[in-house]
Amino acid sequence: ASVVDIDYTSGRKLNKELIKRLASCEYIADYRNIFITGATGSGKSYMACAFGMEACKHYYNTKYVRLPDLLIDLRTARENGTYKKVLSKYSNPTLLILDEWLLMKPTPEEQTDIFELLHRRRKRSSTIFCSQYTKEGWYEQLGGDASPLADAILDRIVHDGYVINIVPIDPSKDLSMREVYGLSETDRM
């Protein structure tokens, strides 16, 4: 993935100046986050990985993980007594890319894991969140009023982030980026 290969002609509203600015990695030096939201196939993961590649070029320790995989990893670590070690694996990178952020509603135990991770990363690192939900929908995905951690989790991330919401210019002609580039189901596997 590369920032220079981001397609600005694909029928999506993208702020080219913001993307160029974020490619400089200044947000990392300022411990700020990036929120990339949009529908499935809109190019969120590609863009996040492009920012991750730029971070690597600037010698920032960078890690990519899908949130479901991270939560499985932490649950397994809790069971085998390596929780702190595994939590550090995700807490320590200067840039963490969390793909599929809140795709599924986390359980109370998973909410605790998310809180612990984001609490450790706050004001000492940056995180890129890729989600199908805009950040306004995250509270409900985290359990809303029924969850005591929903506010606490959001408080640690939403106040200092850049937002890239990938939306189609004309929804009636919207194609996924996989369709734009002619990728078949087998090409993605």
- pLDDT below 50 for ≥5 consecutive residues: which ranges? 174-181
SSE order, one letter for each helix or strand: EHHEHEHHEHEHHEHH
Q: Would you give the CATH topology?
A: Rossmann fold
Which outline best applies? globular
The structure class reads alpha/beta
Helix coverage percent: 40-55%
**What is the number of strand segments?**
6
Q: Output the radius of gyration.
A: 17 Å
Domain module tally: 1
* Strand numbers in spatial order across the main sheet: 1-6-2-5-4-3
Terminus-to-terminus distance: 17 Å
CATH level-1 class? Alpha Beta
- Report the biggest beta sheet as strand number plus sense, adding barrel if it closes: 6 strands, mixed
Total of helices: 10
What is the CATH superfamily label? P-loop containing nucleotide triphosphate hydrolases
CATH architecture assignment name: 3-Layer(aba) Sandwich
Share of residues in strands: 15-25%
Describe the structure.
The chain has 189 residues and is α/β, with parallel strands linked by helices. The protein has a single domain (8-188), classed as Rossmann fold, CATH 3.40.50.300. It is built from 10 helices and 6 strands. The chain has helices at residues 16-23, 26-29, 44-57, 67-80, 83-91, 108-121, 138-141, 149-155, 177-180, 185-188, and strands spanning 12-13, 33-38, 62-66, 95-99, 126-131, 161-168. The chain has a 6-stranded mixed β-sheet. Helix 5 crosses helix 6 (108-121). The longest helix is centred in the first third of the chain and has 14 residues, at 44-57. It is globular.
